[in-house]
Specification:
alpha+beta, two-stranded antiparallel sheet, seven-stranded mixed sheet
Length: 153
Amino acid sequence: MIEEGSQVPKFQLEDANGKLVKSSDFKGKKHVIYFYPRDFTPGCTTEADEFTKNYSKFKKAGIEIIGISKDDVSSHRKFCDKMKIPYILLADIETDVCKKFGVWGLKKFMGREFMGINRSTFLVNDKGKIFKVFPKVKPAGHSKEVLEIFKNI
C-alpha cells in the first residue's frame, strides 16, 4: 500500500457521467480518495451516504471527495442517482489505479478467498502528497473522522 508522504500516483478514469477525470485535475486542492469494494453493498452504501451528508462541510473547507471502485460508469450513475451522491465516483474497471495505491489484494469472506478492493482512504494535501492513510476503514463514522483530521492540519 502506498505510504504517507508519497505523491498521489498519476491516473485518469471515467466518472459517473463518462467524463475523463485526471489526478492532475486536483493539483493545488485538498482531497480525499477513498476506495470501496462495490456500489450498493451495505458497507459501501453507509460510507457513501456519510460522505454525502457531510459533503457541504468538506466543500466549505475546500476539500474534494473522490470515490473509486471497480464498478463501471453505468453502475456509478445508478448509485449516484439513488444515493444522491454529489461528489466524484470513478470507475477503475481494470483495477490499474487500485493497484497503484496498493488496495487491490486477497480478501476472505465466509471461508472463500478472492481478489478485491480493500476498503481504504487516502487524505491528500494541496501539494498532492498523501498525509494520512486509512488501510482498513470501518464505514460508519469514517466521514466525520476524515473531516476532523483535515480540520486539525
